[in-house]
Every structure is written in structure tokens, then in C-alpha cells.
Amino acid sequence: MTRLPLKGLGLLAVASIVAAACSSAAATPTAAPTAAPTPTAMASASAMASEMPSVAPSSSLKIGVVTDVGRVDDKNFNQYSYQGAVQAGQELGATVNYVVPKDSTEYASDIQQFVDQQYNIIVTVGFNLGDDTIKAAKANPDIWFIAVDVAPCVDETGAPDDTFACKGDAATLLPHLIGIQFEEDQAGYLAGIVAAAVSKTGKIGQLGGINSNPAVVRYMQGYILGAKSYNANIEVDSDFFSTGDLTKAYGDPTFGKTFSQQFITQKGVDVLFQVAGATGNGALDAACAAGIIGIGVDVDEYQSYTNADACIITSAEKHLTSAVDQTIKAISAGTAKGGISKFDATNDGVGYSPLNENAALQSKIPADVQGKLDAALAAMKAGTLQTCTSTCGTWNNP
Fold first, then answer.
1. Contacts of 314 (CB under 8 A, 6+ apart)
2. Closest alpha carbon to 152 in 139, 128, 136, 171
3. Regarding predicted confidence, which is higher, 35 or 257?
4. 184-318+353-382, CATH topology level
5. Confidence of residue 57 (pLDDT cuts 50, 70, 90)
6. What is the DSSP letter of 66?
7. What are the sequence ranges of the domains in the chain?
8. Which of 29, 124, 259, 300 has CB atoms 3.0–4.6 Å from 353's, for a disulfide?
9. CATH assignment of 14-182?
């Protein structure tokens, strides 16, 4: 069978891992690889891998990762999800490869490449690949699929349900499909503590993509409760970039900056949290331009969006590497179950980015903040802390 253009990291010594970032010995491409990472660009992934035992593949387990468009070394969803596969693969002695689609039209065919080469576990990264992952899981019931940041929604036959009625039970109909989900409200709560602590005016803000997106709403509801846990009198102003236009909500940084500039001026906030993808990057740009503090989302945006490093103090994080690593190991151990797998503070699923990354903002962080964050995380792990409202995931303008 003709080898397909997969790229990957060999699970060998660190030097081999870096070299394999440019070409994989496990799957020789028939054409020049698309968006192959350079050794320098993959330094973060190599560093992660170096913390694990250096082993050559010693099992028949094969793990394939289909990222979203862009690059595998994006210091965002693609990279950290892939690092989770590498980390698990090293411990399990598995072969690990990845492919980066040129655009959304290649999602299905790139998943199929791993199916055709008889991979045991296929990881897909992000909401955009959700439908194609569900279709592949339905067509290939003996292969395990891990959909990162996806809650599988299916009809009565197990097919993707784009109406979001979700009348089918994905866990029953697709028992080898796992959708990794996160407790965004817990990460938002931690970000809220930081925001209230560094605010000098007692007025902080947050901007979300669309108010009907439960994940966005959970982040924002947690942020409010976290801020009020630090300062009961804090004023939290909230708004959304759109009520239905996905591009405006998540893919338009120019619009995001303009909208955010108006929000900052009108509300007078001195800290801004954003939950809006690329549009949110524009919000961080606006925060920096206004001389206020910005807070990132999903990953450490001090690392992934360096344009706003001057004002980013922390980010509300989903621990993608840990979640993917744990899920693959559960499959290997025979303890995994299909359906939604939830990651929160109890299993290292969420957190916040280091407060010491931005030296210029260190003086703005009160001495008691670290203790407040540690106490909140401990209470989350114990299950004793409320981090979301009674309408969690549904916006009611709290």
C-alpha cells in the first residue's frame, strides 16, 4: 500500500525526536510535507518529550493525530494536544504520527489516512473536526477516536447532528469515540481571582464570542464568581462580540480590537478577560493599547500570542497535553469508555498560566494572590467550591 504524507515525531532519544519533526521514518511521504515543523519551532514539544523515558516503539500501538489547520507547533491547541499523544506514546512504546490539514476540506481524508494504515487510536484536535470524527467513528467501530474539546452530538443512528438536538446517545452508538471536555468555569474562576486582585479601580471586564456557546459562558460565569471571591464589591462588566456571526465572534481580530476599544472606554475597566479565539486576540491588542491588563484563554497566551505580551498577566487554561495523555493511557489500559470524558481540577484538566512570566507586571500582583489561587484549586479538587452559577452554561446576564 502506498504510504501517505504523514509527519511525525519518532519516539526515540531527544535528538531523534527533534530530527523526526521534519520527516518521519514511520511513514515516508510521497510528496513534500505540508507545514512540517522545524526543530526550532518544535523545541517546546521536544522539551515535553524529553521529560519522558527515551524509548523506541516497543508495542504494536499506533497513535495518529489530525490537527486543525495551521501548524503543529502553534503553542496552542494543535501543539499541546499533539504533545499529549507524544507523552503517552513514549510511556506506552507506541508509534506516534501527525498530519496537518491544508484546509477544512482535508479533515476527512486526513483521518482516513490513519484508518487506512490501521492506526489504533486517532486523535482529532478541536471543534472544527467534530463532524468528520463522528463519521469516521461510525464507519470504523473498532478504532478508538479522541475528539479534543468536542462534545459528540449525534442523531438516533449515530451520525453527526448539526441541528444539535442530540437525540442519539453517542456513548452507546459510538462506544469507541471519546469527546474530551473541560470545566471551563473552574479555569475562569482562577482567572477572576487574578483579575480582581490586580484591578486598581474595582472595575474589570470580560468579552465572549457568542452568548449561546456553553463553554464560553462557563468561562465567564466562573470569572465573575472568582473575582467576587477575592473582592465582593468588584464590578464585572460583560459583553459578547456577536449573537450569531461566527466569524465576528471568533475569527476577526480587527473587529475584536475595535469592539474592545469601545468597551474599555465605555466601561472604564482596567482588566479585560477574553473568550473569543482570534477575535479575542484583538481584545488583547486593545487592552495593551489602552494600558490595561489582559487575560488570555484556553492556553498560555503569553506564549501563543506574543503580540500582547506587554499586558498579559495570566491565562485561563485547558490542560490539553494532560487530557490527551490520560485518555490515551486509559484506552491502552482498557479502562476507557466512550462518550464525554470530563477534565477539571481533580485530574489536572484545568488551571492558570504562571504569574511570573511577565516581569513587567509583577509589581501589580498582591502578595496574597498565590495563596488564594492555591486555596481555590484545593477546594475544587475537594469538590467544595462552587465555580459556576445555577444556570451554568446558559447566559443570564449575572
1. 191, 194, 295, 296, 302, 352, 353, 354, 355, 357
2. 171
3. 257
4. Rossmann fold (3.40.50)
5. low
6. E
7. 14-182, 184-318+353-382
8. 300
9. 3.40.50.2300
